[in-house]
Every structure is written in C-alpha cells, then in structure tokens.
Write a structure and sequence with these properties.
four-stranded antiparallel sheet, 4 strands, 2 helices
Length: 196
Amino acid sequence: FPVTIPRAVFLKKQPQFNDTYAYKHSKVKMCMTILPIANQDFSLLIMAPPQVENPYLKAFFYQTIVLFICIVVFGSLGTLLLTHLMGDPFRHLCYVMRQVGQKNLKARYRNSRYGFEINQVGEIFNKTIEDVVDHLHAIETKTIQNEKLKKELFIGQQIQKSLVPKHLLSIPELAIESVLIPAKEVGGDFYDFFVN
C-alpha cells in the first residue's frame, strides 16, 4: 500500500546509519529507514519514533540490575562467611601453637569441619607434641635414674675411702706415700699396711 510523506517535510540523513533519515511531523520527531528488498522492484519504508519505549524491556533492565545487585550482595556475604569458616581452623591451630609455646603441653588441635588441609597439619602438630611429651618423660626418668646412680656412687666412694688407712705408717728409713684415684667415682683397688 502506498505511503505518503506529508508536504513540507525536511529529511535529514543520519550519519551513523545508512539509508536512515530523521524528520519532524506535527512537532513529533520521526525516523524513516528505507530497506531494499532483494530481487524485487520495490523497497520497504519503515517509520517510527526515534526512541521506542518498551515496558517489557524496561522491566527486564530493572530486573537484571536487581538480580546483579542480589548476586553481588549475597555472593559477598557468602564469601565472607565461607572465608570466616575456613579461617577458623587456622586461627585455632595458631592459638594451640601459642599455648604450646607458653609451655602448655596439654593443648591440642581439634579437627574442624572446614579445616581440610589445616586438619592434617593439626594432626601432625598433635603427634609432634605427643612425641615431645614422651621424650620429656623419658628424659625426666633418665635424669632421676642418673641422680639416684650419682647418690649411690657417692655413697660407694665414701665407703671405699673409709676402707683405706687414714694415717700412714711412720718408719724412719722409709718414706711412704699413698694415693687412691679411682677411674670413676668408685674403683676396685684397695691398699693397707701390714707390719710384722
């Protein structure tokens, strides 16, 4: 069907689009595009206001913005919560290490639900502390045994010294000297003087 363009319409070519023109008709801005149709003797003329407002497009735009804001807000909160939950095991392990550093050898790491690799490190740390405690007990037992042995050796040394003569014989033509030096605290050699 034929399209008539009103008289006194001035067409202005739009530089950003090919075959697109702008004009005013009754104080309303309009756009016109001529689209040639292949293998036909005619072209298609499309006329529309330059900005067509689509309420569905506007609603879609606002819904997209709201969805994006929700994703950012809830994603951030979820990230903070997950970071806090995954950081708790590390903070607990550091706390236990500080306790052990302050000589509290009863402190132990407890596995956490979100500990993952930190739980493995905590178990290794607990095993190490248990080994250290076992070694300390062994050293303490050995030290007690050594102290007991030292006391017994001191008593043996005193007994051995009491068995040897305290005064040397005095013979005018003979100089007598004696010394008892055990290789350790107690030796196996004794001496005495017999006069006939």
